[in-house]
Prior knowledge:
Elements: H1 3-19, H2 38-59, H3 62-69, H4 74-101, H5 106-122, H6 126-141, H7 147-160, E1 171-174, E2 179-182, H8 191-197, H9 203-208
Antiparallel strand pairs: 1-2
Helix pairs in contact: 1-4, 2-4, 2-5, 3-4, 5-7, 6-7
Amino acid sequence: MNFLSLYRFSFLSLSLFLGSCYQNGLTSKAPEGVTITNEKKQMLTKELNKVYEEDQKCRLLVSSTISKYGLKSVQILKIAKNMNRVDSLNIIIVKSIIKKYGWLGSETVGTKGNSAIFLVIQHSEKSDRAYFLPIMRDAVRKNRANKQDLALLEDRVATDQGKKQLYGTQIGLDTKTNNYYLMPLENPGKVDERRSKMGLIPIADYLSQWQIDLKVSPLDKE
Length: 222
């Protein structure tokens, strides 16, 4: 096991250990009798805003670093190591918050704080993403999470499990050519109908942002 794998394993073990304390009874709503005061809202908002900033800080460096140094560079390795550390710590914080207060909507912790909850789960381990998917579905029904984010998590969990995605949000990177590609999609002819229901832009517009040509994407091969 190389240094990065060992480092990642250490934080993953900590996350799984603490996470096991929260697995029972997590829902999108706060436990009975829990009241969130204005002071507590401010504290939670501040904490989740910091989580959001930490989550995004290292990820914003990835594209420019790959362009400058390459995908397998030492610089990318350092970013990946830091990303794993941040993700492992952030999921512990988010699990603890959901355990105590349920899935907090933007009316409680603001747009950034609400986004932080989703992003941390989206960037967590496969088992955590699968576990939180039904909880997020419930949060969307209660208007505590947005359906665009849910579409991303639905697709992420599907691809985690080797299934075809529903909304076409998951993009892969061919490490040989450094070109992006659309990961396998369920019933491509209906994808824009499904995307529209989730508030997403048409698939062709989305793929163009990744420089993926719809005409040569897997859509035509399904």
